[in-house]
Amino acid sequence: MSSAMALLDDSAHQPPANLLPLAQIDELSIACVICDSASDPGMPGAGQVIRWHLAAIPATAQGALIDTDPVSYLSSLGEELDDREKALPMLRDIATRYQEQYVAHGRLPRGWVERPVQLACQNVIIGLSAFAHDAAFDGLRVPAFLTCEVPHLATHEGNRALCALMLCDAYQNGGTMEIRFGTRHRSRTIPPALKRYARTHGILLGSEDPCAILPAESRELFLASTPMPDELWARAVDLMDRGLLTPERICHTLLTPIWSAIELDYILAVSSRAASILAGGSSAELRRTRLVEQEVARAALMAGMLYRRVSIADRSHNATVATVHEDTRTNVNWSIDQDRGYILFSGLDRALLPWLDREHAQPVIDLGSGLAVIPRALPTPVDWTLARSLQHGAAAIASALLVPKDVAASVPADIAVLICPDRLAEIDIEVERRMQRARTSRS
């Protein structure tokens, strides 16, 4: 105990006085229980277990919840270590058999074949498992599920990522989303690390069956394992509450990813045909309906391309600064006006704004109020009026139309234009590719 307290005192961040060390998580972090509620308001409450990092990390990542109470945490640690000794040889055998029967011959496995999964980050393995569809209960069979915490990853990130992979596989195989652990001949209880992760999200696994995650629990866990911005979450919950979309469809769409977060947010915000688009679009015989869906998908696709471009600060023009892509993400946020169909970007750097057409009017230099981007594959006079009203209205928001490369010439010269590098035909090909993925994403 004295050595653990000494490690806490020597940490880069001064720990609160009400932390009691429980166990060492890895070489650079310690599990601590909060002894009373007089800590930082941003910290979990008394009696909960947090992870305290000894190295210098962002303050927002310090003190993350790792379990809801010390008794559950310590008992799960013992179970996890025992399970690891038994599961590792089994996973090694599955991987060897898979290599010999499929990889060595260039064959693809069927859904019922046990497929080994290895999850790594920066050459460090953080998760091992195996998946197979079991027709006996029309769900996913998971022989073993092993994860670990490492200093350079957020708390429970290994559990979240491997859980997301497992749930995506369960959805793709077309079963009931029920997940059973162990082999066909010998069941195993739900992995303690997975139960610990679920508890931090208020989900109690194994209450009805200690060896299985039931479909309702899987859907809750799927939503908890899928990162979503707040506005997208609100729109998704609204559609789920109205029975228009299922949790697994939304989560699988984001995690695959068929559509990125901003693309999905735009589709849900502006289109009443969102459920059809996420399912792969209407039949080609319904020409008008399909054209409406295609126009929304085109706009969402261009918005996603723009966001990926502006969220990476490209400093390659500066010869004195080495480009490190992992460190060049910028804090660009978006908000969608669902009534008028534009995206308000905030946090943009005017000097790094891409795709600006020099032959059209320029948006105001001051982007302090953000930039209203109006993505349109085939802009109409109504869209031109919207751009002018945003630019010259009382709020005076900088605005620009985002259009394909071969459509820019049709926009009036007094309207700012961001030119997507793809032509309309190329955008349509990508939209159809994504629609096809959505149609075939579930067996």
Compact description:
With 443 residues, the protein is an alpha+beta fold.
Radius of gyration: 25 Å
Major beta-sheet overview: 6 strands, mixed
Task: Pick out the low-confidence regions.
Answer: 315-319, 321-328
Count of folded domains: 3
Distance between the termini: 53 Å
How big a fraction of the residues is strand? 15-25%
Written as H for each helix and E for each strand, in order along the chain, the element string is: HEEEEHEEEEHEHEHHHHHHEEEHEEH
Topology summary:
Blueprint (H helix, E strand, L loop, with lengths): L1 H8 L9 E8 L2 E6 L14 E5 L10 E4 L2 H34 L11 E7 L2 E11 L4 E4 L2 E3 L9 H16 L6 E3 L10 H9 L11 E2 L1 H11 L4 H12 L5 H9 L5 H10 L3 H5 L8 H24 L22 E5 L4 E5 L24 E5 L5 H12 L5 E6 L13 E3 L4 H16 L4
Parallel strand pairs: 7-9, 13-14, 14-15
Antiparallel strand pairs: 1-2, 2-3, 3-4, 5-6, 6-7, 6-8, 9-10, 11-12, 12-13
Helix pairs in contact: 3-5, 3-7, 6-8, 8-10, 10-12
